[in-house]
Design goal:
Chains A, B, C, D, E, F: One of its GO terms (molecular function) is cyclic pyranopterin monophosphate synthase activity. Chains A, B, C, D, E, F: This is Cyclic pyranopterin monophosphate synthase. Chains A, B, C, D, E, F: One of its GO terms (biological process) is Mo-molybdopterin cofactor biosynthetic process. The structure is a homohexamer of 162-residue chains. Chain A has one domain: Alpha-Beta Plaits. In chain A, strand 3 and strand 4 form a beta hairpin. Chain A contains five helices and six strands. In chain A, helix 3 runs antiparallel to helix 5. The first copy, chain A, has a five-stranded antiparallel sheet, with helices on one face. The longest helix of chain A has 19 residues. Chain A is elongated. Chain A is of the alpha+beta class and 162 residues long. Chains in contact: A-B, A-C, A-D, A-F, B-C, B-E, B-F, C-D, C-E, D-E, D-F, E-F.
Chain lengths: 162, 162, 162, 162, 162, 162
């Protein structure tokens, strides 16, 4: 075959799903977090169940868990992972910040950081969607990995959390 | 962190994908069934391949098997399961009842009851879709689990079937 | 081209998505219904929010609405429909029957019967999934179209409902 | 029908896809933005194309646009929208902040705010995924709607942007 | 905002879903074709329905039509299109070539060429999958657009077909 | 149960996902290839990054890898496979042929031939989509399996490649 590579376009930056075949299966967990800043009144209405599109947190909870299962369909180079557990919690920090945390587990050759981050991101977007008619200026911030366990790179706890 | 839980909304009824990490992998099977009641003439046309949208059972068969693979994408708290086998059968019960049965297998930490139930439900809906122009009053009934094997809760056979 | 058709296999029963191009857009609505028969105790626990996987009806509600949007991805010959409204209601009929009803609307050239039927079917399957650890013998029955409006075939109300 | 509503569980907080049938179609646009804070070295490697999983921004661009098309599949009460345009831009703000902006357009009865927000969120998560082996502490912040046009509620420009 | 563009990476080759808002809706059709070259014996078994995984053409037909509906989910910069019709035909050309043709229609601002091409490609892959245990060396060739109508660029008929 | 089988329609050609439960997990690899024939000028513009929809190969690369992960959702009787690696390469053969090759790996009971074939097919379709405004007559050909390893049927190398 007389083949000339399109190397200037293709070689250097070529994206791939990296090879993890043969890696050992270990217990993997990850916890991620997002903060949603909103008007005091919006928070109050969520608390009291007075948002006309429905129970904001119940819907966001389901959306986050379902999104965790879609992670490999959303993030191009992410390996598919058979999730073994997914849980989402909501907290208030003062009167204007709603915190969403997701904890995901599996037994797998790759970790579940992206699954936890996807869960909180989609849960936060769902809160936005449910409340946007009353508070278009909500901001989602501080989306990050709080901790993870398992895998070759070992355990990790974000410094602010230690 | 000064955190106050939204417990009245969120804590008690909080939905989650329950933790099955570390559970042993076993052979799992499940058989589910639905009945579709239709006009005698509708059944006759299915039998004879005279439904204008196409071969009803061939399409329903494919739909049911593909739906089994989408179960975790449809049922929010369902764990993703790597199916190892899926088969669908159609039977007649008299002249007005079409029965659809699905048998699903895997080797996994969770069972495949929902996969079998999703397969028969979507196969039945597909029969409805293919025939609705000629019989809008079809009814899908008796969707249930006939049997399952494997897992901690052990084997199960529905009483009517014993 | 010397072409011989595979007519014995392919021609007669060939499935297709029927041609609806050029059909007029009209307001379409559809209402569908399923009944879930369960143990009295299961119903009681749903009512009281004492099912360990979470708030059964909140999750089933979200699952049903999301499934309505996936209808064309589940039912092979179904046209994609841009839904304009989807709502799900739960009722009790006595102590052992939970009823789920879905009402769907659009402005489109095809109807939304399949979307309403898919919504109730997946909502019912979700109820099964949330409760199956405590009541494996639940049965989903009487899934049917209660009414529809719009389109060339006109309005329809199921006789038992008139 | 002797029907008793499960009102304490279901009625008040019942989520629904609100009815937008019959609303007029107008041109809709939305611009959303996220910021990704990372190590200086990570930014440098993205700039130079030295991230081993591939060209970070090219992959994130595709991921964001594909995610915009999946919005109604991710956000439960979101109406499906036929997108007419989707574009994503990346900027640097100093040496440690990568900004992602998405602009989405359609002609529709509902807006595309959620599509723009989903695009930037998934693009940002993809940046995280591509770089997480070298910078696990990246944070995604300031995800918000910058502007929108069209629809009954009229145009909107976020104050900081005016 | 002090913003410096990542122009060397991002600007020139930046992929986008091009803006088609405001374009007029017209009737669109497209016909595409693939050829699958196989062993004479494989063709014979397809004809006779003696392939153990099932009726090859019935399954490929459904797969092709369902894939047409997924086009915008597969092809990154493709606009979502509400299909109004999809049909697939199989022909034999001699004893070793199975031809698959797809015809797709819509009323839309963009065309359906990609939908027709996706339909034949996935139908052909499905034929491969159903028969691969008996004929691993099948080749799919000549996948191309045979004709299209509608849109600003006007009608097109591939020369060999005129 | 008085059951009469719809055997003339259903039994012989009944499609199923064949039972692979209990089969041993082995390392599986597959390499597939497609050729895209185009005008010399089209190739030149791809090389130079002068296609207005964006960087053709970067987008096709991502599309192919994401499609590999969707294989079981596209090919009806295909078992879901947890991919462990996916890589795509582009080559030129002369001035008018662009070659796309995909290499996929897993540790599984079934092989990844369909995943590799799906990856090259969707990557090729994406090249078509990105360039169709300038070259509607492109043809995708020679899509086939080049090699595979693992599984009961053993290793395979396509003859032309030996």
């Amino acid at each position: 075959m007389n083949v000339e590579k399109l190397s200037h376009i293709n070689e250097q930056g070529r994206a791939r799903m990296v090879d993890v075949s043969g890696k050992p299966v270990t217990r993997r967990t990850a916890v991620a977090r997002s903060r949603i800043r909103m008007k005091r009144e919006t928070m109050e209405r969520i608390r009291q169940g007075r948002v006309s599109k429905g129970d904001v947190l119940a819907v966001a909870q389901v959306a986050g868990i379902m999104a965790a299962k879609k992670t490999a369909d959303l993030i191009p180079m992410c390996h598919p992972v058979p999730l073994k557990s997914a849980d989402i919690r909501f907290y208030e920090e003062g009167d204007e910040v709603l915190v969403v945390e997701a904890e995901v587990k599996t037994d797998n050759v790759t970790g579940v950081e992206m699954e936890a981050l996807t869960a909180v991101s989609v849960a936060a977007l769902t809160v936005y969607d449910m409340c946007k008619a009353i508070d278009r200026e909500m901001v989602v911030s501080d989306t990050c990995l709080l901790s993870k366990t398992g895998g070759k790179s070992g355990d990790f706890v974000r410094r602010e959390e230690k």
